[in-house]
Amino acid sequence: MRWTLAGKFAGDAIFFNAGYLLAFLIRFGGELPKANWEAFLATSPYITVIALILFYGYGLYTPGRRRFEEIFASLFCALAITFLAAITLSYMLHQFAFPRTVFLISAPLQLLLLGLWRWLAWDWSRKRMGPLRLVVIGSPAQAVERARQISQAGEDMYQVAVLITVSPEATLQKHGEGAPGGDAYSELAAAIDHKTANGILFCQDVPREIRIALMSQAAAQGLSIFVIPDTYEIILSNSRLDQMDGIPVFRLTGFAPNPSLAWERLTDVALAMVIAVLSLPVMLLAAIAIKLETPQGPILFRQERVGQGGKVFQLYKLRTMVPDAEKLTGPVLATDKDPRITKVGRVLRFMRIDELPQLYNVLFGNMSFVGPRPERPFFVEQFRREVPGYDYRHQIKVGITGLAQVEGKYSTSVEDKLCYDLIYAKTKSPLKDLQILLHTIKVMLMRSKAS
User: Fold this and answer.
1) DSSP code, position 393
2) Hey, which residues does 251 pair with through a beta bridge?
3) Are 178 and 204 in contact (CB under 8 A)?
4) Could you name the CATH architecture of 131-228?
């Protein structure tokens, strides 16, 4: 693993700078003028470090199974930011002999070289590791649904080797006899013996007794173990170990150490003002397109949403649906291929342009840039009844983007989005927010996430 990581670092640094070298040769007809080349050499170490830090921030050195689409989108975003940082840095270091044309020529060359290098590394890693063959364990409904979701990723990444169903009331009897839990133990043992699986995935509703026993069996055989957490387990995470007169206890920590953090508000206001000014031409063009397609409807769409502390506020968006879309149906959640979405609206949603008016919600203090996505009061009441712990997400300020939007998909279930929201609330920090913002740009380029 260490050699693989070192190889990625070295390869990225080499091909990143090779892009500059080729750009110089193209720009100066195969020559390297001394003054220009020395200006590059003086700047290159700093630019390379910035690029590698951005690659790290985009998860390009994090172990795991990813589609190449995600890797390429990460490269594109990291190089785009590096391009801007490199031009700024060359001015700050007074390296004016570093030609601007070299920056322009090098950007597509770096994307090509790094994209090819990363594809070769990805393909080699994929073939070396092979697909992760999973034993999926859960109640019939949960196990089947999770197996369906895993299968959508493609057989080259994940395969469901064995599907084991247990009822939430099942118990594990001695030697695995006479109980559903015992059957699960026997099926797992058979899967291990036949080497049909190299990983095990536990759904949320596997009884604790069965889970512990099966985990021990899987760990003894060297299987990778994955657990889908429930609300209780997320709340318990990051708890502080304490004691009460010699009794070991976990002291639960709150979700947000301070709901009105000064750094968050200052960052939100400054960033919202800058982006709002820069995006005005884009919003103007979008407004014209909306009006041309559906002249009878409004350009700006206002809707009640539930924010921090359960308070209701008016959320602003560019209208992407036909006028009076819910006049006959009442409140209905949007779907992947919703017929109510206009042609212009589909483009605006794909590019996330419809979200731009929410910058004013950030300025008004209703929202932050990063946080759980605010939902409508009608659905909040519904989810409160159906999803245990749903109200926990209202302990922190809602946001334009969040961990659920970065890691999940448009079709991700309410329960799974809640898990992401709670995990974010437990790990909230300026660095985490920056990482989510960077990954939001990447998600906008990924078709599988932006649908």
Assistant:
1) G
2) 240
3) no
4) 3-Layer(aba) Sandwich (3.40)
Among residues 376, 374, 389, which one has the least CA distance to residue 426? Answer: 389
The model's pLDDT over 333-343, given as tens digits with 9 standing for 90+, comes to 666 677 788 88
- How far apart, in Å, are the Cα atoms of 152 and each of 89, 122, 129, 145? 44, 19, 19, 11
Six-digit token string for 121? 């590394």
Q: What is the DSSP string of 147-168?
A: HHHHHTT-TTTEEEEEEEE--T
pLDDT tens column, 245-265: 889 988 877 665 554 567 788
Token code pair at residue 40? 């590059």
Question: The dihedral of CA 355, 360, 366, 368: what is its sign?
Answer: positive
Residue 380 identity: V
Strand ranges inside 32-146, DSSP E: 132-138
Averaged pLDDT, 90-94: 87
Largest CA-CA distance found in the chain, in angstroms, rounded: 82
192-208 burial string, b = 16+ CB within 10 Å, else e?
A: beeeebbbbbbbbbbbe
CA distance 42 to 95: 8
**Which residues, in sequence order, are CB contacts of 92 under 8 Å at separation 6+?**
none
H helix count then E strand count, the chain: 17, 10
Count, residues in the chain: 451
**What does the buried/exposed string (b/e) look like for 10-40 if buried means 16 or more CB atoms within 10 Å of the residue's CB?**
ebbbebbbbbbbbbbeebeeeeeeeebbebb
Alpha helix positions (H), 223-279: 231-236, 262-278
> What is the helix (H) or strand (E) element at residue 31, kind and residue range?
none
Residues 251 and 239: their CA atoms lie apart, in Å, by 6
Tokens of 116: 């090819």
For residue 305, the SS3 value is: strand
- Phi and psi at 137, nearest 5°, equal -120, 130
Which pair of structure tokens corresponds to residue 213? 């026993």
What are the extents of the domains in the chain?
A: 2-128, 131-228, 262-450
* Residue 184 burial (C-beta neighbours within 10 Å; 0-12, 13-18, 19+): buried
Q: What is the pTM of this model?
A: 0.82
- Would you give the distance in Å from CA 421 to the centre of its chain? 11
